[in-house]
């Protein structure tokens, strides 16, 4: 099972559907709206706490299975 971690939304562009999560330790993590749990319109707010899994994507580390806390 993959470990989950927490972080804070650094910024998220609703029009483009992506942003970055600041981790307590380590580099910022890319997040795409498709990785956010839930139905319908998916967005995240700056400063919002989230829980997620870090995976290696085509362009580096990214968040998957993002859950708002």
From TrEMBL:
<dbReference type="InterPro" id="IPR050181">
    <property type="entry name" value="Cold_shock_domain"/>
</dbReference>
<protein>
    <submittedName>
        <fullName>Cold-shock domain family protein</fullName>
    </submittedName>
</protein>
<dbReference type="InterPro" id="IPR019844">
    <property type="entry name" value="CSD_CS"/>
</dbReference>
<dbReference type="InterPro" id="IPR002059">
    <property type="entry name" value="CSP_DNA-bd"/>
</dbReference>
<keyword id="KW-0963">Cytoplasm</keyword>
<dbReference type="InterPro" id="IPR012340">
    <property type="entry name" value="NA-bd_OB-fold"/>
</dbReference>
<dbReference type="InterPro" id="IPR011129">
    <property type="entry name" value="CSD"/>
</dbReference>
<dbReference type="GO" id="GO:0003676">
    <property type="term" value="F:nucleic acid binding"/>
</dbReference>
<dbReference type="Pfam" id="PF00313">
    <property type="entry name" value="CSD"/>
</dbReference>
<feature type="domain" description="CSD">
    <location>
        <begin position="4"/>
        <end position="68"/>
    </location>
</feature>
<dbReference type="GO" id="GO:0005829">
    <property type="term" value="C:cytosol"/>
</dbReference>
<dbReference type="InterPro" id="IPR012156">
    <property type="entry name" value="Cold_shock_CspA"/>
</dbReference>
């Amino acid at each position: 099972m993959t470990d989950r971690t927490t972080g804070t939304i650094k910024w998220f562009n609703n029009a483009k559907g992506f942003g970055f999560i600041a981790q307590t330790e380590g580099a910022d993590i890319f997040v795409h709206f498709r990785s956010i749990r839930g139905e319908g319109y998916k967005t995240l707010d700056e400063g919002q706490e989230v829980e997620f899994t870090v995976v290696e994507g085509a362009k580096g580390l990214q968040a998957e299975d993002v859950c708002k806390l």
